[in-house]
Automatic annotation (TrEMBL):
Residue ranges constituting the Fe2OG dioxygenase domain according to the UniProt record: 196-304
A Pfam family that the UniProt record links to this protein: DIOX_N
Keywords: Iron, Metal-binding, Oxidoreductase
GO molecular function list: metal ion binding; oxidoreductase activity
Family named by the database record: Belongs to the iron/ascorbate-dependent oxidoreductase family.
Record-given protein name: Fe2OG dioxygenase domain-containing protein
Keyword Metal-binding: yes
Gene3D superfamilies with a match to the protein in the record: B-lactam Antibiotic, Isopenicillin N Synthase, Chain
Amino acid sequence: MAPALCSTTPDIKLGHLDDVQELRRARPWLVPDRYVRENHERPSQASLLHSDNVPVIDISNLSSPTEMAKLQSACQNWGFFQVVNHGVETCLLESMERVSREFFMLPLEEKEKYPMAPGTIQGYGHAFVFSEDQKLDWCNMLALALQPHFIRNPKLWPTNPANFSETLEMYSAGIRKLCQRLLEHIAESLGLKPYTFNEMFGEAVQAVRMNYYPPCSRPDLVLGLSPHSDGSAITVLQQDTNSVGLQILKDNAWIPVHPVHNALVINLGDTLEVLTNGRYKSIEHRVVTNEKIDRLSVATFYAPSYDLELGPLPEFISRNQPCMYKRYNHGEYSRHYVTNKLQGKKTLLEFAKIHPEINDTIGYTH
C-alpha cells in the first residue's frame, strides 16, 4: 500500500504530529502534509550517490606544511572537513552518543518536561518555526546553552538519563578545547598569529544541539533539517555511522558527508566568513532522512562573546577585495539568527552583506 499523505489521523493527538518519533511509532507509513516539501526542495537520489567527500585532516600532524596546506584548502574550497586524532577520547564520544540516544528513547511525556518555547532554541522540540503553515523538519532535537554559565537554563537540562548532565559537561569541555585548538590552526592558515581569534572572541559562547532523525517512509518528500549556514564561528558535529544524512552544497550540487570512524565533522560558520571578508565561507548544508535507518548527531556551536563587535579584518580588505560585510554586534546577529527560519544563507546576507553599489563609500584599509 502506498504511503498516505494527510494532516490528521484519528489515533494521534494533533500536537503529536509535531513529534516525528510519536508519528513514526503510531503510523509508520504516514507523512503529514506539514512535512512534505515543495518539489524544488526535495532531495534527489542523485545526491546520495555523489562520490566526492569532504577532506579529512589529521590534527596531530598540522605542524607539517603538507597537512596545513590541506587545512587551508579545506577551509577555502569546502568550508567543511573532518578531523581525526582530535584529542577527544573515544569513550567520551561513545558516552555522549549513548546518553543522547537514551534521552530520545524516553516516553514523550518525559521529554516534554523540557519544552522549547516558541522563538527560542533551548529545550526539546522544533527550533526555527515561526508560522502555522511553515514546513517542519523530520527531526526531534534537544538544544542547550553551555557557556558562559549565565546563558544556561538549568530547568531544561534533563535529569533522565541520570548521568546526562555529567556526561555533557565532560564532553563539552573536550569539544571546547578542540574548538580553541582549531581556531589557532585556522588563524595560522590565514597568515595570522595563532591566538588571533581566541583572543578576539573573549568569553566564547558555546551551545549544543542533539538531533534525532527517525526513519521516514518517504525520504524523497521530506528533509531532516532545512538548508542553512551556521551562525557560529565553527561547528563541531559528531554523527553516528549508521547512515549518511548530512549534505553540503558545493558547486551547486548536494554532496553527502560520509561518516569516518572516530572523526568529527567541522564546518565554518558565518562569523569566520565575515572576519575573513569572504576568503573562508560558511557553507549551506542540510540533512536528509532514510527509509529504514535512524540517525543521531550532536552539534556543538562555538561563537564569539555576544558583546563583540564584528567586521572584516583589515588584513582581508584591499582594492582588489573591497569590504563585503558591515560591522555589527554579534549578540544582535545571534538574536536575528534565532528569530528567523532556516533559509540557506539568507540570514547572513540580509543582515550583514554590503551591496556592491555602496562599497565605494566605504573604502579600503590596505
